[in-house]
Every structure is written in C-alpha cells, then in structure tokens.
Amino acid sequence: MDDSLSPTKQEDDYVTSITEEHDTICWGCGLRLIISPYAPIFKCGWCGAITNHNARQYDNKYFWLRRLRDRSFVIVLLLFMLFIIGSGVWGIYPVVFSIGYFWGVFHMTITAILSIATLSTYVLAAFRSPGAPPRIPWGSYPTMGRGALMDYTFCNVCSKPKSPNTHHCRSCGMCVLDMDHHCPFIGNCVGAGNHRSFILFLMSAVTSTFYVSIMSSYILYQIWPPLRHIPTVTLSWSTIVAVLKESALPFLISVESLPIRGFVLIYLFFASVSIEIGLAVLLWQQLCFIYEGKTYLSHLNSTSNGNDEVDEKDCQNIVRFFGCSNTATRYLLSFWNIKKIHKK
Ligand SMILES: [Zn+2]
Ligand SMILES: [Zn+2]
Ligand SMILES: [Zn+2]
C-alpha cells in the first residue's frame, strides 16, 4: 500500500491499548489498521466501517431451487385468488341479480374494483425488486471521508457495503435496503422498493375477504332451504334430545337439499374469514412498526440488543410511508398533534 495513502500517525490515534498487534486493511477506506489478533470484529476509526472476520458465509448452492419454489408458490396463490373470485362470482351473482338488477350491477362494480386492486398490488409486491442498496464508491482513502461508512458491514456474496438497515437475503440472492422480512407468500423480500405495495395488498386483501365473508353469509341465508319440522312424539325423556330434534336435526337434514352453490358459499365463507383474520393481524403489526418508524428486522435487532428505544412514534411516519403530502392530511395531523400535546 502506498505510504502517502496511509497516514499511520493518524491511525494510531484511533487504536487503543493493544498488547499483541497485527495489521489489516479496512475494506471501507483501504487504510492500514493495527488491531489485536484476537479481534474478529472491529470498527475502523476513520470511515466507521465494521470488519467481521467471522461473518456468516451464505451457501448459494440451492439459490435457483429456492427461487423456483418461491415463484411456483406465487403462481399457485394467484390461481387460488382467481379461483376465489371466480367461485364468488358464480355463487353470488345469480342470487344478487335475482334480488334486483341495480344490486347486481352495484356488486359487480365493487367486485371488479376489489379484484383489480388486490391482484395488481399482489403482482407489484411479488415481482417488484425489494430495493437494492444505492451504489457507493468504497475501498479508497481519499474518496471515503471520515465516518462515510459509519456502521456499514461488507456483504461477501454481493461484494458490496451494506448499511445497518440493509440485509442480505439468501432466497432473493441480493442485499435488500430497509429489509422488513422475506415473505414466502409473495416469494419476495419486503423492503424499501415494495413495502408500500405490500401494505396496499394487505389492505385490499383484508377488505376483499371481509366483503366475500359478508356476501357469502348473506346469500347462504337467502338460498338456505326451509327447515323441515320433525314432531317430537314420545321420546321426551331428556330436554337435550328434544332441543336437538327441534333445531339441530332439521338444520342438518336441510343441508341434504342444499344446492351445490350453497356448499361453495360455505367454503367461501370459512376460507375468507380465516384468511381475513390472518391478514388483518399481519396488517396491524406492520402498521404499528411503520408508526414506530422501524421495520420488523430492526425491531428484532433492537429487542435482542436490549435497547428497545423507539425512534419517534408519530402519524407523520405513516404519512411519509404512503407519500401523501396534500394539505388535508397535513391539517388533520397538525390537529392530532395539538390534541396529543394537550393530553400531556
Ligand atoms: Zn475504514
Ligand atoms: Zn448481499
Ligand atoms: Zn428475500
């Protein structure tokens, strides 16, 4: 290394109390550092880059297999969504149109809007790049100023510096900026590039499944065959048996004359309610993290490090996330903040 590029006098100031010394080169600024041989992890005193000799080595052997598995699952889920939409239309429309033409057209419009919103946001979240970190020059002393790579680590797979909020995903085979998590349902990472599409997908999916559960239960109620009454004659030795005979049995017997449409609607109802509950919990958790100004991974890091400090809990974080900057939201937020100050 050129002596003019390594101001050893300056470096010595940044290295403290070392008994046995050995020198190494900082990957960030290229300066020679003198460190203890027992220090597998050290931080450069000049640029702030962290060198970790014990960094996890990623096994890139089955990358294409993992990618294929993720993509196939996305195709299966897309087909499942189309199946839900198709069977919903088949099960609900004829009955709605028989109630009234206006209702038919009204529900047709709602179905079209919800389907397009859910499918398009899903495709965006699944196929958009989750956000590659910006290219920065690194490795040379004059270009890297003091603290220019503060807390950056080096990704051995991408051969690139990664900021504290950037993580390498083995399944996506890339470093992801502001990585939240790798979601198997979209076969993609959720990061800076597609986080908004992911949240919008969750919102439209929760709304759609809520709509399907309401509509399927309403139509089931409309088409359910009348309950056949079974008279209880002599067997009245127990009230439970009587109640069963009076209510549950006719209900079960009536299922026998339920059209196939009814069974499809029962399936739709249970499927939509269970998906709705799962997605609503996930959406709520995601919105809480956005409100607190962190991602799922940064939340995990802060709790494992024991410092559960919150950046700043603020509705502005949510507004910034969705990129709304119109005066109406700003007015509402200033009103909200005034209320918060008054409560304090
Ligand atoms: Zn350095
Ligand atoms: Zn990487
Ligand atoms: Zn990933």
From TrEMBL:
GO cellular component: endomembrane system
Transmembrane segments: 73-93, 99-125, 198-221, 265-284
Catalytic activity: L-cysteinyl-[protein] + hexadecanoyl-CoA = S-hexadecanoyl-L-cysteinyl-[protein] + CoA
InterPro entries from the UniProt entry: Palmitoyltrfase_DHHC (IPR001594), PFA4/ZDH16/20/ERF2-like (IPR039859)
Keywords per UniProt: Acyltransferase, Membrane, Transferase, Transmembrane, Transmembrane helix
Ranges where the Palmitoyltransferase DHHC domain occurs: 152-301
PROSITE patterns reported in the protein's UniProt record: DHHC (PS50216)
Mode of membrane association: Multi-pass membrane protein
Entry EC no(s): 2.3.1.225
Subcellular location: Endomembrane system
Catalytic EC class: transferase
UniProt KW Transmembrane helix keyword: yes
GO molecular function (one): protein-cysteine S-palmitoyltransferase activity
Coiled coil: none
Keyword Transferase: yes
Free-text domain note: The DHHC domain is required for palmitoyltransferase activity.
Record family assignment: Belongs to the DHHC palmitoyltransferase family.
Name this polypeptide is given: S-acyltransferase
Organism ancestry: Eukaryota, Viridiplantae, Streptophyta, Embryophyta, Tracheophyta
